[in-house]
């Protein structure tokens, strides 16, 4: 399988472990990896004083998370990254569709106990994605 594998990250240890599984899977099947971090609002804040001001937005924060993880995974495969607007599951699915990805990789965080009842990103992606979904075991990551 060549093509693109999409993985979602949020800065957590479980997301990092899922991203590492995605990298290993991409290397094994000859695919490239696209790291995505979701943001849900267009909130921005301005910091600084005088003429030195910095505008920081949720999109910037999400892109920073995706870039940091992507850089840590780079090596024998092509790794790209982006920030995507929306709730995590929706953003991952939209990015996978936009890129015509072959697979989405997510961690299994919140798939046990009360989180399973309330829902999880993995559960939502598994039920709504138009491509294959791989759920990485990340229980011992955090």
From TrEMBL:
InterPro entries: Rossmann-like_a/b/a_fold (IPR014729), Universal_stress_UspA (IPR006015), UspA (IPR006016). It comes from the Bacteria. CDD domains: USP-like (cd00293). Residues 2-135 form the UspA domain. Gene3D superfamilies: HUPs (3.40.50.620). Belongs to the universal stress protein A family. This is Universal stress protein UspA.
